[in-house]
Write a structure and sequence with these properties.
By secondary structure, this protein is of the alpha+beta class. The chain contains eight helices and four strands, in the order ααβααβααβαβα. Bound molecules: flavin mononucleotide (FMN).
């Protein structure tokens, strides 16, 4: 796959991009993104992922309405903003909620399942593919962000798009070329030592 940057540079600079130029994303590029996604691991190599590419303006408009309503209920003017959401993230996410229908390309990452109840099990065979897609998007100069607010209208969106019962939507990925003010990383993350234990929960590294 044609990549213009190295893997680690992509990992270190990939971040949530929520504002896009109106330029279309070509079908060839869409295929490249999805091919990268399909290189991910899945339980038993069952590859339960399905990717619904949404470019139809009417479908995007309807999804945008559901997404906006979900945003309003979760974080909007009448909702209490969860204190853990940083103001810049909130502002950026609100902007996306207002403009979801205008994003050039939406990809709905879905997972086929057999009705088993394990949410963690289901997710673990689709989210590696989603991350691959996000990294490939970064490599190709595109922006994207993993979103899940649409889950509040899962049933309605499944009906709208003809998604069968045994398929769950895992992430709605808005994708496009970033606007000039949208920046790739570096990202702000907790340092390694804050999130790592050695040999025993809560323990630091062995002394040299
Ligand atoms: C499971 C999950 C669900 C998310 N859902 C949403 C969402 O519904 N809407 C949104 O705008 N961003 C969503 N995000 C994006 C996060 O806000 C973003 O990854 C985080 O703030 C880090 O952003 P950064 O990489 O730019 O630092 C989600 C991320 C994850 C991993």
């Amino acid at each position: 796959m044609p990549g213009t940057i190295g893997l680690l540079e992509a990992i270190y600079s990939q971040r949530a991009i929520r504002s896009f130029k109106p330029d279309a994303v070509s079908e060839e590029t869409v295929r490249s993104l999805i091919e990268a996604a399909t290189k991910a691991p899945s339980g038993g190599n069952r590859q339960p992922w399905r990717f619904l590419v949404i470019r139809d303006p009417d479908a995007k408009r309807r999804i945008g309405e559901y997404y906006w309503q979900a945003w309003e209920a979760a974080y909007g003017t009448r909702a209490a903003t969860p204190p853990e959401i940083q103001p810049h993230v909130r502002a950026s996410a609100a902007g996306l909620a207002e403009k979801m229908a205008e994003v050039p390309l939406l990809i709905l990452a879905c997972v086929e399942h057999d009705g088993s109840p394990s949410a963690m099990g289901r997710g673990s065979s689709i989210y590696p593919a989603v991350q691959n897609l996000l990294l490939a998007a970064r490599g190709l100069g595109l922006g994207s962000v993993i979103t899940t607010l649409h889950k509040r209208y899962e049933a309605e969106i499944k009906q709208l798009l003809g998604i069968p019962e045994n398929v769950e939507t895992a992430a709605l990925l808005p994708i496009g070329y970033p606007t000039d003010d949208a920046r790739y990383g570096p990202t702000r993350r907790a340092p390694v030592d804050e999130v790592t234990y050695w040999d025993r929960w809560g323990q630091g590294p062995p002394k040299a």
